[in-house]
Design brief:
Layout (H helix, E strand, L loop, with lengths): L1 E4 L3 E5 L5 H4 L12 E6 L3 E2 L21 E3 L17 E3 L3 E5 L5 E6 L3 E5 L2 E10 L2 E12 L2 E10 L5 E7 L11 E3 L5 E2 L5 E3 L4 E4 L10 E6 L7 E4 L7 E5 L7 E4 L4 E3 L2 E6 L4 E10 L4
Antiparallel strand pairs: 1-2, 2-3, 3-4, 5-13, 6-7, 7-8, 9-10, 10-11, 11-12, 12-24, 13-23, 14-17, 14-19, 15-18, 16-17, 18-21, 19-20, 20-24, 21-22
């Protein structure tokens, strides 16, 4: 794995060209800039996953701080970029349907990887079905703050669907977590979560196992980027924020982890680009 490190934190990032790391990669999460784990010099690993603490979770479940460019529209399943289940998935490579009807990676993206002081940048270009794009992912570590920045450019002749989401896997404390949200954000009544008197999302109950959990759509406040202030079993807290207003933002959790997932759903005209960033601020050891 690739690594960013300072006196406080070390960040393990999957190397998309390394066969040993490719066992963790599949058709769900972007291969370039996939943050596998963040480790505190004193407290140890800080992130979890759907199967945590299994060392080799199946690629679809993953762990850490992955991000995904969807190959099908959320909710409808309408194919994006793929035609007859052939084409490419942004940030992954050319894919094709196998005999079982699922997608396999036929040809992974070729990444140019540049390492500088405190940052690693991943760049790739893809073409297929008349679409073409250039993708740059930059992961940067500054003291206890980790930033994931992305720029996608449509270099083709067809409008390019951009359906992206982040899927951070945050650690639970005794299978519970609290998450403070902006005052303008809300949530419908549901069986999994509720707000306390400080407008913090809390669990209504402890989920009992990996397949016991709850998925719920948040109500995104108008013109309000995400700022999630999360509890953590080893730290004073973690702040997860976006520099954009998500188009939607579900939350999901099970007995092993919890995730808040900012979504982006748009289209890039030929020649257009879109840039955005996620920031993770890891508090001091508790």
């Amino acid at each position: 794995m690739l690594q960013l490190k300072n006196a406080d934190l070390s960040v393990a990032i999957l190397d998309p060209a390394n066969p040993a790391d490719q066992k963790h990669l599949g058709t769900r999460y972007c291969w370039g800039g996939y943050i596998w784990q963040v480790t505190d010099a004193t407290a140890g690993p800080l992130l979890a996953g759907a199967e945590w603490p299994v060392k080799n979770p199946i690629p679809f479940n993953g762990q850490g701080l992955p991000e995904s460019f969807r190959h099908a529209e959320f909710g409808t399943g309408r194919p994006l970029i793929l035609e007859n289940l052939r084409g490419f998935i942004i940030g992954i490579g050319d894919v094709a349907r196998n005999m079982a009807g699922a997608l396999d990676v036929a040809t992974p993206c070729l990444w140019s990887i540049t390492t500088s002081h405190g940052a690693i940048e991943f760049c790739t270009e893809q073409t297929g079905n008349g679409y073409a794009c250039q993708l740059t992912r930059r992961i940067a570590l500054n003291r206890r703050t980790l930033t994931s920045s992305t720029r996608l450019t449509n270099i083709g002749e067809r409008p390019l669907p951009l359906h992206w989401f982040a899927h951070p896997f945050f650690a639970l404390d005794d299978r519970l977590i609290t998450c403070g949200l902006p005052a303008t954000w809300d949530m419908a009544d549901n069986v999994g979560y509720e707000f306390d008197d400080q407008h913090r999302l809390t669990f209504k109950r402890r989920f009992q196992h990996r397949d016991d959990g709850h998925f719920e759509q948040l109500i995104v406040g108008a013109k309000t980027p995400l700022r999630a202030e999360l509890s953590h079993p080893k730290l004073t807290g973690v702040v997860f924020s976006t520099d954009f207003v998500p188009d939607s933002c579900p939350v999901w959790g099970n007995s092993n982890t919890w995730s808040i997932e900012p979504y982006m759903a748009t289209e890039l005209a030929p020649g257009a680009d879109r840039a955005w960033s996620l920031t993770y601020e890891f508090g001091p050891v508790a």
